[in-house]
Amino acid sequence: MYEPIRTKSVHALADDAGFPHRSREDELKIQLSGHLSALLAVTDELGLDEAAEALAGQIGRLRGTPPARHAGLSGADPAALHRRALALAGRALVVAAARADTAAAILSAERMDAHTAALAELVPEESLPDRSLPDQRLVGAH
Question: C or N: which end of the chain has fewer Cβ atoms within 10 Å?
Answer without folding.
Answer: N
